[in-house]
Amino acid sequence: MPKEIFMPKLSSTMQVGTLLQWFKEEGDSVEVGEPLFEIMTDKINIEVESYEDGILLKRYFEEDDEVPINHVVGYIGEAGEEVPESPPGESGVSNKPDSPKSPESSEQQTETAPQEQPSEQPEKVRATPAARRVAREREVSLAEIEGSGPKGRVHQADVESFTTTASAAASSASSATPLAQKVAKAEGVELQDIAGSGPRGKIYRADVEKAKQPEAASQTVPAKRVKMAGMRKIVADRMLHSKTTAPHVTLNSEIDMVEVVAMRKRLLDPVEKQTGYRISYTEIIMKATAHALKRHPNINISLEGNEIVQHDAVHIGLAVALEDGLLVPVIKDADRKGLAELTADCKSAGQKAKSGKLKPDEMSEGTFTISNLGMYAVDTFNPVINQPESAILGIGRINEKPVGVDGQIVLRPMMGVSLSFDHRVIDGAPAAAFLTDLKAILENPLELLM
Amino acid sequence: MRELTYLEAVREAMSQEMRENEDVFILGEDIGVYGGAFGVTRGMIEEFGPERIRNTPISEAAISGTAVGAALTGMRPILELQFSDFMTIAMDNMVNQAAKIRYMYGGKGKVPMVLRTPAGSGTGAAAQHSQSLEAWMAHIPGLKVVQPSTAYDAKGLLKAAIDDDNPVIFYEHKLCYRTKSDVPEEAYSIPLGKADIKKEGTDVTIVATAIMVHKSLEAAEELEKEGIHVEVIDPRTLVPLDIETIVQSVKKTGRLVVVHEAVKRGGFGGEIASLIAESEAFDYLDAPIKRLGGKAVPIPYNPELEKAAVPGVSDIVTAVKETLNRL
Predict the structure, then answer these.
(1) What is the strand order of the sheet A35-40 is part of?
(2) Residue B145, phi then psi, degrees to nearest 5
(3) Phi, psi at A10, each rounded to 5°
(4) Mutation test of the interface with chain A: which of B250, B280, B282, B286, choosing the one with the most A Cβ atoms within 10 A?
(5) For the whole model, what pTM was predicted?
(6) Which residues of chain B have pLDDT under 70?
(7) N or C: which end of chain B has fewer CB within 10 A?
(8) CB-based contact A133 B283, cutoff 8 Å
(9) B144 neighbors B167 (Cβ within 8 angstroms)
(10) What ipTM was assigned to the predicted interfaces of this complex?
(11) What is each CA distance from A54 to A19, A33, A49, A272, in whole angstroms?
């Protein structure tokens, strides 16, 4: 009896997975734990391993296909066993409790591989024969080219616009001065290879003579083009979706951080002693935010379909910048954790994100996100909400500024904060109240003890 | 130059040949005083008499068998079948006799005959009188298959068919009979196996036969308004087929749409598409080859359904745009 392989559901928001790469051909033998294929979800790239020993009997989907969760991707079984010719659709056994492929059981091998996707298997690119011929002639890789046809099929015109405009050179060939043509002929120089300096690329004798010299720097360098894929595409889709579905409103404020600065100084040593990490402002801000969220449950919400879900737990996501995108690891139950534990959690989450070791469940179930750009010369910005959450806090730098205190102008370490919220579910006044409360906590961190 | 209808051009080709060559004669049902099912031979019995315009019993087997025999003994018969659907009755004589004899006797005998017959739908003649069965005949080695679309082509190709020493199946589309074009008065011959570019273009190649040539030209005109330049090629003869002209065109345009009225499944369009995929034009294809053909149903009697069963101008326009990703 052949065993189904199906598209695992790796997060609460995952509806489809994109098949990035097969590691096995039909007919290959497969062992338990061997990676079968790599998928991309709305959050990460992950390798899916086999839960059966046997022969990979059937692959129903090709690379780049989108497969709904729990749909059968293929079969593993004994050689010669019969399997359906066409994709059977949703798996019949996916709801069994002992069903394979829960994400937890594949933790060990779970890896994000965001930058690796393009150009690994150029022969699998969908392209017309003409596009392939032109790509061959011009020695470009089809994998780098964005196709304009159905399902991303690369056409000849796509290859042509990708490579340098040979047509310009060709047209200039026809417009060369008679002298230039004569010189070119005498010197054995191809006019097509010469960029003319005259009007509309007309070639003069000087151009021909310059071209004669070995490799004059007349070659125009084409702009670098990279196919948008992997994490970049996920970020793009999610940002666009958030911005186009949620009406964003951003409230800005400034917080006097003098107390927090003092508090952090006093906590540095004890926290480092306990965890080995240096506590940063991020953890203190997260702690204060969690505290404020507990007081303002109407901010800690999600819009799911027609229902507004008010979360009891406070799970705070922390935006982590990577070379080619960003990830948002989630610190679970941030409100119940002390600053030492938060410091340890935040640092290890950041390291995992940067080394691509985050597991799907470490990036899911967030109820609020903090995006900190304080290490840059940024005062405030309008962060984009990380859906399905409804609000996000942007942190700017701490900068000494003159402020009025008790009738005196004094310099204070002021920090810009920006709260973006989804106006479909949160109104201005409650958001403002939340931000005001957060400011009060950070200006008097003893409130955290309350 | 004067204009003639397709029907008149066919008649003129036969009359001119019969005046020149005593061996040529016509046989078929009601081709005498009545002038044939569509009037192609009207008036000919008055000029050539009943010896050379021979009415036959209602038996396609008898007509075709007589023609094969006459051809073997040195005559050059032209036989008319009222509807190409009745080819089924003449099939054994055409496939097992006419097509084979010259080969089986090592060239000692030959069968110089022309089978003329009206084909296609569009006249409300329903399932048994509207088919396009040319792919059957094109499959048989030893038969030549001609499908002219214009009056000019009809006259020149019929002369070439009569002059040919092999059996030639000459399909006349019923809806083409009334189309007109300039036709020279003197006799002329268009070689079998020479395609004609009916309209030059740069973006997409359409290969169309018979009435679909006219529909494709109409579609091309419509597409021209949107800046799409279609090249329309009429192969004119399926056997022998001038594939080279099509290959050169596809190398130029990178896109191919094949249109015929015959049912798409097993139709001759599949042969053309395959030849292109095998040819050096393959590396120039910039879109999947598209075939348009009749639906796999017997031609309905209801005029609306009859129209819907075969490709129309809008289908061709859509297919061309699809190959250009312009839908």
Answers:
(1) A45-49, A35-40, A16-22, A66-68
(2) -130, 120
(3) -105, -10
(4) B286
(5) 0.53
(6) none
(7) N
(8) yes
(9) yes
(10) 0.77
(11) 21, 12, 13, 51
